Amino acid sequence: MIEIFQNIREIYDFTAPCGELMPYIEFFSESSAEKCELYFDRGHASVTMFESWTPTFYINLTGGYVIDVGGKHHNIGNGKDILILRNGLVTRHNQPGDRIFTVKFYPGGLEAVLGLNQVSMGDRVVSLNRILPQTLLTMLKGAVSFIDRITIMEKFLLTAMRGKVASDYYSRIVLAAIGEYTTTDMQLNTSKIAERLFISSKSINRYFNRVVGVAPKSYFSVLRARTALTAMVGNRNDFKPWIYGYYDPAHFYKDVFRFTGRKISEVL
């Protein structure tokens, strides 16, 4: 299956984080035995995801699987837990019995909550036991339900975040810039966003490269393409690309091809 073009989420349960973590974490998710039984044969044996620059924990509750990151195969053995950045194409190869608990951070969210900079994680598969306490991972795997795992993880993350001396200034600016871009319907360029945050264009570029690992123009282009393509797939008849800052349909189609490597006509 291919992210956005197909419903890769239909075999998972999803929950948003608590309010204090909401600016930093997009969601918690877990593969569902019931949903896998119903929908796995629709193509979930192989799932391809596009770049998003979102650090993501994959906590392995059963079995093992293979994941392609940075053009390389990685065999994730039974009990191994990983962190990836998703700065490029990622393909995960699954079995119906796989059970994975996922924490997906927004760009810069990992640094804001745990003080870990994501820039050096590009195209890497990082073992989570280098980042999270083994006692926490053991508790998560021993929990009896998805909801219990969320409770355990949120308690840990909230404690870690509150224990920091102060929120990182650069991370806060980056998260604020992303917020400005999305709440203004993705119509503003980098310079305009910098003006709204009372910083220079040079500064906002430096902050994004330091926190996210890519320039703001490049990140906003990815975010816009993901958001607009998702909207088009959801309701093609009512889709208007200029709502998302595109000049016309040709501009949008060109951006989709650059982002996905596929023409709209090939997949829809």
UniProtKB/TrEMBL annotation:
<protein>
    <submittedName>
        <fullName>AraC family transcriptional regulator</fullName>
    </submittedName>
</protein>
<dbReference type="GO" id="GO:0003700">
    <property type="term" value="F:DNA-binding transcription factor activity"/>
</dbReference>
<feature type="domain" description="HTH araC/xylS-type">
    <location>
        <begin position="172"/>
        <end position="268"/>
    </location>
</feature>
<dbReference type="GO" id="GO:0043565">
    <property type="term" value="F:sequence-specific DNA binding"/>
</dbReference>
<dbReference type="InterPro" id="IPR018060">
    <property type="entry name" value="HTH_AraC"/>
</dbReference>
